[in-house]
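Researcher: Checking consistency across runs. Here is N-acyl amino acid synthase FeeM catalytic core domain-containing protein again:
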Amino acid sequence: MLNNSAVTTKEFSTKLLSILDAVEYRRIESQEDFEDIARLRYKSYQERGVLPLSASSMLDEVDFDDHAYVFGVYLYEELVSTIRVHHVTPTHRISQSAGVFPDAVNAFLDAGMTLIDPARLAIDPELDGERSALPFLTVRPTIMAAIYFNADRMLQHIRPAHSAFYRRYFYADTVVPPTFASIYGFDLTLLASRTREIGPKLLSRFPIYESQPYERRLMFDRSPLSGMAPLTILPTARLARQHSMPLAS
């Protein structure tokens, strides 16, 4: 017999799938879309009191790095949240987390690992409905990136108050305890999820993180043959009945 916690998780997971049916993802490429993302970031960070002390713009050079992927999440065709996903390798070490925790990130890379480093997560603070679901829907490209790039770790550089969320739902380990980050003026901590180990548990618990290979290609393929980024990308979680992916190996 399932306990109350298991029932609650199952019900919430079902709710997430139903909301996902109204979601579209967009890989941000145009100047107009980037301006929308900048406005959303500012509104979200100002509301939460986490604007970087030295920030002159809500866009930075890393947004345009060829290993960075900025996504907008659209609910009922309205932009509601955004995230930037960075593919970090031993030969391409640009990383938001490394700006705060260089020793820890470089230790992973020196060991030959590849990383997915999500950053710039922002959710429209004016939304009343579906607020509890949006963090889960917004980080979905992070899990897809770990699969697509066969990454060893997913990083989370976050405020300490959010660490319980990532430990509980993404089975993250603490890499660096809370440390004062001068660029922000408050403490941050670094966590990391072991992608291949957590895969079966994560995808079983939250089927919204399932995806078809062609959806992952639409999200992350930048080869010359792929052409222009699609305007919108529809989630394929319901179609993905099996996952022959590195996360599950």
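Researcher: Does this match what you'd expect to see?
Model: One thing to look at in this run: The chain has one domain: 4-248.
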